């Protein structure tokens, strides 16, 4: 099953839509692969999470952060989960591109879900999960916030 968050909301512009869409696609795929690695890591069965959440910084077209989640059914082993996630991550370019007949991201949807029988993924421009210490953060912008200390004496 394939579900788009908002059919009308895609990342494209007249001049650089293809470049921006390709950059977002690469960032989302990088995030998904990182989360798939975390979700399936661990030796004993009890340490394998079979899910992961993450966020990636992306500054084009007003989208500053992309949030993602991957998840597998609990009856899968780590390698089975990884194989399932790799399969659906590999389908993202074809399924989430507006020009899916060519597989080229002329515009790439800012949010979407791939729901398989044994695993699924989701990415959005809005936070849709509770962040924890295990949430992966990649390519996040450096904090530009600072403060000035004043000596009042």
Q: Any overview of this molecule?
A:
With 153 residues, the protein is α+β, with helices and mostly antiparallel strands. The chain has a domain at 2-6 and 19-42 and 53-130: Killer Toxin P4, Chain A, CATH 3.30.430. It has 3 helices and 9 strands, in the order E-E-H-E-E-H-H-E-E-E-E-E. The strands form 2 sheets. The chain has a 6-stranded mixed β-sheet. A 3-stranded antiparallel β-sheet has the order 2-6-5. The longest helix is centred in the N-terminal third of the chain and has 23 residues, at 17-39. The radius of gyration is 18 Å and the shape is globular. It starts with a strand and ends in a 15-residue tail after the last strand. The model is unreliable at 1-15 and 146-150 (pLDDT under 50). Keywords: Repeat, Signal. Residues 5-128 form the Gnk2-homologous domain. It holds the Pfam family Stress-antifung. This is Gnk2-homologous domain-containing protein. InterPro entries: GNK2, GNK2_sf.
Summarize the structure.
The chain has 153 residues and is α+β, with helices and mostly antiparallel strands. 27% of the residues lie in helices and 27% in strands. Keywords: Repeat, Signal.
CATH architecture of one domain: 2-Layer Sandwich
Shape: globular
User: Structural class, please?
Assistant: alpha+beta
Q: What kind of sheet is the major sheet?
A: 6 strands, mixed
CATH fold label of one domain: Killer Toxin P4, Chain A
Strands, total number: 9
Strand content: 25-35%
Unreliable segments (pLDDT under 50, ≥5 consecutive)? 1-15, 146-150
